[in-house]
Amino acid sequence: MSDEEAFAEASGLRRAVELIFSVLSLSYPIRVFSGKWQLIRAKLEELHAGLIAAEKCDSGESPSLSRLAAAVVATATECHDLCRRCVVFSYSGKLLLQSDLDVAFAKLDAHAKKLNEIYKTGILTNGFALVVSKPSLAASKEDMRFYVRDLTTRMKVGDLGMKRQALKNLLEVVVEDEKYVKVIVDVGDVVHLLVGFLGSNEVEIQEESAKVVSVVAGFDSYKGVLIGAGVIAPLVKVLDCGSVLGKVAAARCLVKLTENSDNAWCVSAHGGVSVLLKICGGDCGGDLVGPACGVLRNLVGVEEIKRFMVDEGAAVTFIRLVRSKEESIQVNSIAFIVSIASGDEVVRQMVIKEGAIHALLRVLDPKWSYSCKTREVAMRAIEDLCFCSPSSVGVLMSYGFVDQLIYYVRNGEVSIQELALKVAFRLCGTSEEAKKAMGDARFMPEFVKFLNAKSFEVREMAAEALSGMVMVPRNRKRFVQDDHNIALILQLLDPEEGNSGNKKFLISILMSLTNCTSGRKKIVSSGYAKNIEKLADAEVSSDAKRLVKKLSTNRFRSMLSGIWRS
């Protein structure tokens, strides 16, 4: 090609690019046949990006490109005239205008297909390192669409290096600015292109596309677009056959997509459950096993899929994973165990039989090194798995759970200490044997300390737990032996305190203590005993009146009257 011909071709491309830009700018305010104009703009944007890329390529002899540029200029000129007519409403009739718009769209579509054919022939090659200009953070929506369209064209017709760089640039912008996610969805070709890339034989193309898809899947309003584009099947294939990074991105994407149980069957239908179980049963790292556990946890809510997992030995696999050294695997495997056993007594019993309690108690054992987060998850799991059955509580206590629980009530960090208190409160209400064991482990002095806690919820739990524990004779005897216990409870009954909304449980404790002689004596001899009379006189509490009546037996009446007169 001579210099004159090359210059003419470059001038033709530049003229086409500038004219398309002009038409696009003029078309945005148009309100007549806005749907048709949206379709036309999409084709103009595709051509705009493709022709800009062609300008930056070494085309050699390409008469076909020159002819295409001339045809695009002619069609863009027609579109410019249509824009002008629509803006000033100077058209003969809507039917004729509609026909003209349809013709313009058809021509633009043909031009776009012709440009793709030219790229596919290899006539256009990358003549130098491309530097794609990324719009600023304050860029307009139009600028963002241009940029995404440009990247889309490079992904569609560029060589491997161009595709790879375009995907990396696309990932960069969707991570930095979520507005680009909406642009990707609006520019329809992009989602289908990304889904297609998931099946690429090129590792980097597959990995980068999986990462972009995972970002898009994080938005609830766009999950349906991905599902409609058929994203599940290629994601499962990546999980099965892809690189490690590709598998991690695919698993993270599926976690987000399967939050909607409607998508669970699609994962199962493409063999995803078996692939995920294989990952969790192998020696993969936490970056992959963690999200794989998350996907299975989302799927377990479908009864048929859960039964398949049980039959495949999922319970044993995840109980073993609790012993992993990685926190993400520990936390996700424990969560899966709870999910698969939830609401199913047969599976719950099977999980316990397979060693779930022993594995969870190992997490709570202070001599083993586990994070506070893992221990909190394990403690909640024990509560969910065991507290619904007296026999399971018995097994739990036979493994030394009470001693571990008191350790965290006394020594745990704030978050796990409060959780341990809540679990202890629930354990106290499961059986009399549990109350006895907790009394032997000296839980009552710890509950007494929490009666002065800042949190109303903590104060109430402590008071209610104590009111249950002192119903057991040997616990009651222990409680009475410490004079401070009775004095504190009577002090907290002062109507003027105002910070204790748990008077009902405090009075219940005192009612239980009146069942032993030493308890009654210490109540009536306390300097705070008059608080009971204050509550009864103020008619604030019928429980207080019953307590006064119980204390006012012949044996203690004179002693009680003497104290209240003082």
TrEMBL record:
Keywords: Repeat. It comes from the Eukaryota. This is Vacuolar protein 8. Coiled coil: none annotated. The keyword Secreted does not apply. PANTHER family: ARM REPEAT SUPERFAMILY PROTEIN (PTHR46043). Residues 250-449 form the U-box domain. It comes from Glycine max (Soybean). Residues 15-123 form the DUF7032 domain.
